[in-house]
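Notebook, p. 212. Picked up where the previous page left off. The plan for this session was modest: take the two constructs that came back from the sequencing core last week, fold each one, and keep the raw output in the notebook itself so nobody has to go hunting through shared drives later. Recording the first one now, exactly as returned: residue sequence, then the C-alpha cell string.
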Amino acid sequence: MKLVITMSRRYGTGASVIAGGLSEKLGLPVYDKAHIEHKLNENSFATEAEVIRELAKQPCIILGRCASEILKEQSNVFNIYVSADRDDRIHRIMKKEKLTYEDAKEMLERNDREREDYYLEHTGKVWGDVNNYHMILDTSRLGISECPGILMKYFEKMEFI
C-alpha cells in the first residue's frame, strides 16, 4: 500500500521529531509548512490543497496544513493527532527555544490559537476532534522517542507496510 501519513499536532508535542523518526524507518519524505509554501512559490497558480494532493500521490508524511481533511477521500491516508500535557509542552518549548516559562507559555498559546483558527477557517471543523483521526498519540504518556516504534508496530500489524 502506498501509505500517506498526515500528522496534526499541538505546538510543543514533538510531532516533528516523531515524523522524522518515522521517515527514517519507512524511507518516506516529510513535508511541512515550509516545503508546501516553497512548492506554492514555484507554481503561483496552485493552491495549498492542490500541492498537498500532488505530494500525496506518492507515499509520504505530511505535517499539519489540514492535510487530513484535504486527503479524506483517499483510502491510503492514515491520520494521526499528536498531543501532550500542557506543562510538558511548555517545558519542551522552553528547552528548544531557550525561553522563560512565561514566554514559552505565551508562544504555546499563540501557536495553538493560530493552528485552531487556521483549521477552522480551512475545514469548518474543530481542530483536534478525535473523530477526524485514526490514532491519537499522547507524547506525555508514551514518550516522543517511543512513538515511531509504536506506529511501526501498528502499521505492520494492520499490514499497511
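Okay, moving on. Second construct, recorded in the same format:
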Amino acid sequence: METLNTSSALIRAKLLTYSGPLAASYEQLWNNDRLDELMPSFLVLIHQIMRASVPLMECAVRRCNEVNSNDPLCPALADYYGHHIEEERDHDVWALEDLEAAGFDPKVALDAVPSPAVAQLAGRQYYWILHHHPIMLLGYIMVLEAYPPSNTTIDKIRDLSGVSDAGFRNLRKHGELDVHHREELDQFLDSLPLEKNHIEMIGMSMLHSIESLVACLQTLRPIDWHRPADRVMSSSIS
C-alpha cells in the first residue's frame, strides 16, 4: 500500500475515494442508447464549465491579493492561479470552435441556459473563494483535470455518437495537457505548508465538485439544434 507521506498523495487518495459516482456517470453516458443525441449536449456542457474556469481563478487571485499579508499561503496561491489562468485561457473558445467544426451552431450553445447543476458547480467555488479561503478552488481544479479521456475512449464515443472527429479536438488536447497540469499541481501542493484544515477544505471542494458534476451529467438533455446548413437549405427553398 502506498504511504501517504505527502500532501498531494493524501489529497489524491481522497479524490480516488470520492470519484466512484463520477466514473459511473461517465460510463452510463458513454453507453447510453441516445448518445448520438446527448453527445452534442455534452460538448455544450464542456463549454459551459470551461467558460467559468478563468473568471473563477481571476476571482481567486483578487481574493489572495486582498488577504496577502494575513495568510502565508495566499502569495503562492495567487502565483499558481495566475499561471494557470494563462494555461486555460480561451479553452472555452476551443469548445465553441469544435461544435461549429462538427456542424452545430455555436450560437445555440451560447443561448442555452446552463442547468442549475452547472451554476452550482461554479457558484460554490465563488462562495468559498470570497467567504472562506481561495485554496478551496484547488479541489475544483483537481476534479476537472483528474481523469482526462484517453484517445481510445474518445474514438469510442465518437464512433458511438456519430459526431465527427472535428468535435473532439478540445477533449483530445486536454487528454495531453491535463497530465502535465496534474503533475504541476501535485508539485505545487507539496511545496505548500499545508495543515490538516487546508487538506480538509480541498477535500470538501473535491467532494462537492464531483457531486455537482455528476448532476450535470445526469441532467443532460438533447438540444433542439438548428444546424447552419439546415438554415441555408430552408432559406433557399423558401
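Notes on construct two before I forget. The chain has one domain: 7-219.
Flagging for discussion at group meeting.
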